[in-house]
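<instruction>
Derive C-alpha cells from the sequence
<data>
Labelled lines for chain and fold
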Amino acid sequence: MKLDGRRQSDNVDDRRGRMAGKTSLGIGGVIIGAIIIWIMGGDPMSFLSQQASEGLTNTEQVYTPTPEEEEAAAFSKTILAGTEDVWKEIFEQNNMTYVPPKMVLFTGSTTSGCGTAASSTGPFYCPVDKTLYIDLSFFNQMRDQLSAGGDFAYAYVVAHEVGHHVQNLLGTLDQVQRRQRQVGKTESNQLNVRLELQADFYAGVWAYHDNKIFQSIEEGDIEEGLNAASQIGDDRLQMEAQGYTVPDSFNHGTSAQRARWLKKGLQTGNITDGDTFSMSYSQL
C-alpha cells in the first residue's frame, strides 16, 4: 500500500508494555495505607518498603518496542486515520454523523469495556467502550502461522474491526445481539457469521474509497487481502486444527464467504450492497 505522507490517527491509546490490572497507589495512597496498617497493629515500615520495592521494579521494567513493532504501530494508526476519513464522508453522504472509534495497542493483555483483552483472542472490537483492541504481534502470527502476510492484509484486519464499529453506530450490532439472546446456539452462530461477513464487506468498502481518495492500493494488495480473508475462514481453521469441520459451529464464515464479501465491498464501495441479513443463510 502507498501510505507515504498520510496522517496518523491520534485517537489511539498506546498501552504497550503495561500489564492488565497493574495499578499504583500513588504517594497519598501509600501514606494512607501505612496509617491504616499502623492503626490495625501491623508494621507500616514493612508496607512502605514493599511499595518502594514495587515502584522501583515498575520503573526499571521499561518497555522498548522493536523497530518492526514501531513500524506496525505507525501503520495501524495510519490505517485508522484512513477509516476515519472514509467513514466520515460516507456517513455525511447519508445525512449521518460518524463518531470514530478509539484504538488500543497493547502487549500480552489489557482491560476493556468487554472484559480482559488478551493476545490469544486476536484483535476485536468492544461495543461497550467503542474501541478496537489489538496486540501488534498478531500481524506476525498472520505472516508466520497463517500465511496471510502483507500490508493490505494487515489493513484489512483493522478495517474489519472498524466495520464492527460501523455496525454499532448503525444499530445493527445491537439488533443482532438481542436476537442472539432469543435463539439457539446454531442460529446464534449463523447470525454472528452474517455480522462478520458484513464487517468484511465494510472493510472492502473502506478500501474502495481509500484508494479513490489516496490511490493507496498497489499491485498485489487486493490478492493479499483476499488471501488473508481465505486463511481465516472457519472451515480452513477447523480443518487445520482438528482435521474436520463442524459447520453448525462456524461463527465467522467460510474462507469462500469471507473472500467473497470482502471482494464485493472492494468492487462496489456502496454500503447498501452489504446486506448479509436478508438473504437465506445458504446464499451467503
User: Anything to note?
Assistant: Residues 26-60 form one domain. The chain has two domains: 26-60, 66-283.
